[in-house]
């Protein structure tokens, strides 16, 4: 008889298994006795340590959900857990860990730091599930998005509700569940109610609000069809840059008890590098390789999303008096226009008007600024090196981003493909 994996959907007629006891080896969560964790062992493979922490913690969360209701546990809780454990770069978790290590943290509180790092991964789970619903994205990390899976399970893809299909409405709840689990994990990792805990929780609260504000402003820009390059950058900073780079770095340093100057410099580094990350992601979503980015190329254009590269293209066409270019952007971008040859024409315009090159240069400038701020933060050398490596991998410009003829794979229209890590 096969032993049921607690992250597999349970058989509804069976009662949920009781929570298992025992340790998690090198990575220990906050529930039950906290075994000592060797920070040097975690240093060798931070993603694996976070993964172990997440797996045991999420097994418990799924069992609790199944105890509440077996169908709820199977349909939502198990899928949220699987989403969090499958794919993703663990960038946010690593940045938090290395910021703390760079400020002398981890020697006596590695388990707490792992809990905070894992909480960041659950915030990411929430954000991506909700983002896919709001954008109508069918793919995530190369697989069917969660709302698509739910609609396929129940055959409800064509059944419209005020907030979309059944799958879309249920996926909103799944994202809410991920955020609730993230809050639980973060609160459990705090050590008492001292100055460090209060400072860390203030950062956590601000991060959640920024993420929601950015998502709302993004939706609003799509609905109104307005937005300058400055406004698009503001949305990117709130929606992605904050919780991807700036806040993880600040949280790690704060949890380690770093001085305010260090936290401030890391926040400056995170703002620049995080914005570079999002602008680079926009370029990859427009000119990238679907096999690498895990979702269809050109999706932002087809859905009419107010990305920075589109805002730059409109501003450049307006300055040049290119009325034909403006008409193309207005008529071919969005659900009614951007498909097939129209999409190719828009992509050609983004290259011809210089928008892609301008955004690529902006990414490079932001990366440089972020690196300078990291160097000025006064971190331990080994941790600083790891953070610099992570930021280069996350936001460094891809070959071919400037359109100079990359030797990498080229689309049939002659536009270089942008590659890079997934989200």
Task: Give a quick summary of the entry.
This protein has 423 residues and is mainly α. Helices cover 67% and strands 1% of the residues.
Structure explained in plain terms:
With 423 residues, this protein is mostly helical. The model is unreliable at 1-35 and 399-422 (pLDDT under 50). Helix 9 (229-255) runs antiparallel to helix 13 (308-320). It has helices spanning 39-44, 46-68, 70-85, 91-102, 110-135, 146-154, 166-189, 195-224, 229-255, 260-287, 290-293, 299-303, 308-320, 323-332, 340-352, 355-375, 381-395, and strands spanning 139-140, 143-144. Helices cover 67% and strands 1% of the residues.
Compile the SSE list and pairings.
Elements: H1 39-44, H2 46-68, H3 70-85, H4 91-102, H5 110-135, E1 139-140, E2 143-144, H6 146-154, H7 166-189, H8 195-224, H9 229-255, H10 260-287, H11 290-293, H12 299-303, H13 308-320, H14 323-332, H15 340-352, H16 355-375, H17 381-395
Antiparallel strand pairs: 1-2
Helix pairs in contact: 2-3, 2-5, 3-7, 4-5, 4-9, 4-17, 5-7, 5-8, 5-9, 6-7, 8-9, 9-10, 9-13, 10-16, 13-14, 13-16, 14-15, 16-17
Beta content = under 5%
- Reading the helices and strands in chain order gives HHHHHEEHHHHHHHHHHHH
Q: Give the class from helix and strand content and strand pairing.
A: mainly alpha
List low-confidence stretches. Answer: 1-35, 399-422
Characterize the overall form. globular
Let me know the average pLDDT.
83
Annotation, overall tally of beta strands: 2
How would a textbook summarize the main sheet? 2 strands, antiparallel
Output the strand order for the largest sheet.
Answer: 1-2
Helix content: 55-70%
Distance between the termini: 37 Å
Please give the count of helices. Answer: 17
Rg from Cα: 22 Å
């Amino acid at each position: 008889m096969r032993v049921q994996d607690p992250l597999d959907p349970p058989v509804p007629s069976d009662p949920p298994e009781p929570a298992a006891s025992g340790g998690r080896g090198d990575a220990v969560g906050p529930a039950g006795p906290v075994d000592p964790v060797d920070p040097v062992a975690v240093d060798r493979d931070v993603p694996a340590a976070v993964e172990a922490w997440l797996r045991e913690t999420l097994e418990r969360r799924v069992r609790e959900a199944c105890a509440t209701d077996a169908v709820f546990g199977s349909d939502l809780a198990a899928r949220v857990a699987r989403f969090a454990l499958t794919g993703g770069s663990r960038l946010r978790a690593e940045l938090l860990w290395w910021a703390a290590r760079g400020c002398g943290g981890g020697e006596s509180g590695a388990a707490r730091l792992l809990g905070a790092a894992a909480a960041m991964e659950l915030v990411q789970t929430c954000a991506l599930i909700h983002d896919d619903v709001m954008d109508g994205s069918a793919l995530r990390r190369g697989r069917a998005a969660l709302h698509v899976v739910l609609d396929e399970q129940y055959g409800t893809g064509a059944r419209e509700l005020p907030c979309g299909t059944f799958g879309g409405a249920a996926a909103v709840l799944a994202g809410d569940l991920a955020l609730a689990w993230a809050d639980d994990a973060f609160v459990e990792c705090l050590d008492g109610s001292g100055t460090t805990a209060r400072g860390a929780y203030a950062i956590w609260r601000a991060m959640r609000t920024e993420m929601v504000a950015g998502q709302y402003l993004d939706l609003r820009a799509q609905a109104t069809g307005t937005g300058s390059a400055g406004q698009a950058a503001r949305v990117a900073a709130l929606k992605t840059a904050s919780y991807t780079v700036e806040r993880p770095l600040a949280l790690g340093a704060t949890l380690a008890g770093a001085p305010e100057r260090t936290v401030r410099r890391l926040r400056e580094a995170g703002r620049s590098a995080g914005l570079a990350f999002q602008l680079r992601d926009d370029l990859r979503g427009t000119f990238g390789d679907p096999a690498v980015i895990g979702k269809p190329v050109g999706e932002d254009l087809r859905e009419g999303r107010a990305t920075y590269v589109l805002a730059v293209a409109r501003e450049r066409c307006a300055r040049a008096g290119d009325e034909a270019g403006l008409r193309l952007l207005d008529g071919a971008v969005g659900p009614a226009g951007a498909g097939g040859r129209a999409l190719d024409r828009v992509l050609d315009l983004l290259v011809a008007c210089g928008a892609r090159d301008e955004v690529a240069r902006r990414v490079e400038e932001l990366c440089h600024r972020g690196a300078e701020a990291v160097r000025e933060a006064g971190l331990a050398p080994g941790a600083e090196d790891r953070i610099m490596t992570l930021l280069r991998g996350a936001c460094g410009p891809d070959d071919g981003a400037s359109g100079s003829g990359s030797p990498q794979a080229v689309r049939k229209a002659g536009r270089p493909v942008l590659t890079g890590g997934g989200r």
